[in-house]
């Protein structure tokens, strides 16, 4: 396989956002009566769209969330991102040295992704190559988003390599007919689970160029 395009997930792959985002979400849920350990929040909600998170939370709570829940969640999340967010170790160096075209495809909301990438200092690397689930009918684990990104970047699915950190994203990439590398360097990532879904796991971004070479 000759890799013609690398498609990166955003949260948990390019930026260390998952611990921050899930801590904020845990606190917002606790404020409306749904108290969960952080580990359960991460296990339950990572990889889902915002709408998917709301749907699951309401089902667990057995009632609708308050009308101002999303606005308050966004406000707290963006403040935390601007104060705390960092890129995943090795990502700025990796993107600066990339010789293969690349883009970002995320289930996250467009505004959230933009704020997060700006806060982490990565927007200059990816500004013109961002795709979100808001642009397709079905989010990950459907293949739609990755196929959409490949089409807009002028690449065939069989020539694409995807970098993901969740089973949801790996399933989407496999369904799209793309090679998948599972980043398992974050505490929430499960290398064995990523492998079982069809990814080649790795734990440090410095490993990725060699993996792409051998793909």
SSE topology:
Layout: E1 5-8, H1 18-31, H2 38-45, H3 50-61, H4 69-84, H5 91-97, E2 102-106, H6 110-119, H7 123-126, E3 130-132, H8 144-153, E4 160-164, H9 167-175, E5 179-183, H10 191-197, E6 200-202, H11 208-214
Parallel strand pairs: 1-2, 1-4, 2-3, 4-5, 5-6
Low-pLDDT runs of 5+ residues are none
Q: Order of strands side by side in the largest beta sheet?
A: 3-2-1-4-5-6
Distance between the termini: 6 Å
| CATH third-level topology of the largest domain | Rossmann fold
The proportion of residues forming helix, as a percent range, comes to 40-55%
CATH homologous superfamily (4th level) name of the largest domain: HAD superfamily/HAD-like
Shape category: globular
Please state the average pLDDT score: 95
The SSE string, one letter per element, is EHHHHHEHHEHEHEHEH
Level-1 CATH class name of the largest domain: Alpha Beta
Number of domains: 2
The CATH architecture of the largest domain would be 3-Layer(aba) Sandwich
Q: What structural category arises from helix and sheet content? A: alpha/beta
Please outline the major beta sheet.
6 strands, parallel
Strand content: 5-15%
Number of helices: 11
């Amino acid at each position: 396989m000759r890799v013609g395009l690398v498609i990166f997930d955003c949260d948990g792959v390019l930026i260390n956002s998952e611990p921050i985002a899930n801590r904020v979400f845990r606190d917002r849920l606790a404020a409306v009566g749904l108290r969960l350990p952080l580990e359960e929040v991460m296990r339950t909600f990572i990889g889902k769209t915002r709408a998917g998170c709301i749907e699951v939370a309401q089902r667990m709570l057995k009632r609708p969330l308050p009308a101002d829940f999303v606005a308050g969640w966004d406000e707290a999340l963006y403040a935390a991102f601007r104060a705390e967010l960092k890129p995943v170790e090795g990502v700025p160096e990796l993107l600066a040295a990339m010789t293969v075209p690349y883009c970002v495809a995320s289930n996250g909301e467009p505004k959230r992704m933009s704020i997060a990438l700006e806060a982490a200092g990565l927007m200059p690397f990816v500004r013109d190559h961002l795709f979100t689930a808001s642009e397709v009918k079905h989010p990950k684990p459907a293949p739609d988003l990755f196929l959409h990104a490949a089409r807009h970047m002028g690449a065939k699915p069989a020539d694409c390599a995807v970098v993901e950190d969740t089973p949801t994203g790996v399933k989407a990439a496999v369904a799209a007919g793309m090679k998948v590398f599972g980043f398992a360097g974050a505490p929430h990532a499960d290398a064995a689970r990523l492998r079982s879904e069809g990814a080649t796991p790795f734990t440090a971004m410095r490993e990725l160029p060699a993996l792409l070479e051998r793909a």
